[in-house]
Amino acid sequence: MSRLLSRKVLLPTLIIIAIIVIFSLLVPPVVLPAIEIAPEVVFHLFGFPVTNTLIASWIAMIVLLLLAYFATRNMSLVPKGLQNVMEWVLELIYGLVESVAGPKWAPKFFPIVTTIFLYIIIANWTGILPFYGSIGWLHEAHEGATGYQIKEISEGLALITRQPAEHGHGYILVPFLRSAATDVNMPLALALTSVFMTQYFGIRALGLRYFSKFIHVDFRHGAFEGFVNMFVGLLELVSEFAKIISFTFRLFGNIFAGEVLLGVLAFLIPYIVSLPFYGLELFVGFVQALVFMMLSTVFFTMATLGHEEGGHAE
Q1: Whether residues 217 and 308 fall in one domain
Q2: What long-range pairs does 5-11 form, CB within 8 A, spacing at least 24?
Q3: pTM confidence score
Q4: Which of 177, 181, 198, 254 has the greatest number of beta carbons closer than 10 A?
C-alpha cells in the first residue's frame, strides 16, 4: 500500500519537475528588472511628467468607478449579480466600522474608510496583473544601473537578453504600468487624508476642546503634574505626525517588497514556480487595505472621545 501511494505521489512530482525544467529551457528567459524606488516617467502631458504609477492610480480609480456604476445600474429590492456581491461586501465593512466606532459615528466614517479600502485593494490587486512591469519603453541604462544586451531578431523586432552589458552600455525596461503603491506619494497622500480627517472629526465632536490634548497647561495640582501634562501633550502632537510616517511606509514597504520579490523569483525560476507567490501578494494586498481602513477607523473614533474617555478607551 505504501509503495503504491509513493508511486502515485512520486511519479506526478517527477513529471511536474520535468515539465518545469523543459519549459524553462524552451521559453525566452526572464530578465531581472531594474529595481528603482522612484517611479519612471512614461510621457509628458502639457509639460507635466506622467509616471507609470500615476497611470496605475488612474486605472484603479476607473475600475472603482466602473464597479460602482455596474453595481448600481439596475438596482432592485432583491439584489442579484454584482449588486448582491457589492452589498455583501459593504455590509461586512459597515459591520466592522460600527463595531469600532459605534452606531453614532459609523455612518460618518463609513464612506471615507470604505473608499480608502476599495481603492487600495484594487490598486494592489491590479498591480500584479501580467502586463504591469513587463511592457514599456527601452531606455539606455543610466550610470549605476545594470543594462542588458539587445539581440535583434529582424527589423523592428528585438529580444532583450539575460546577459548584462558592459558598464555604461545596454538597455533597461521602463514599464508603462507599475503598482500605484510602489510610489511613496500615493501612500503619503492617503496617510495625509486619514490624519487630516482625524483632526476634522475630533473638532466636529469636541470643538476647540479637542486641541487640549496637544496643549494641556494646568498647574492647579502642582508644578510637577503640570509639566508632565505638557509633556504628554507634546507626545500626542508628535504621534499625529508619526501616524503619517507609519501609514505611508507600511503600505509602500509591503507592496514594493512584493513587487521586487515577484520580479526576482521570475528571474531565478521563470514562469511556474513563482505562481504561488502571486496568491501571497493577493493576500498581502488585502491585508494592507484592511489594516489601513481599520487603523483610520480607530484613529477617527479616538479623536471623537474626550481626553479622559480616550484614556479609558486605550
Answers
A1: yes
A2: none
A3: 0.79
A4: 181
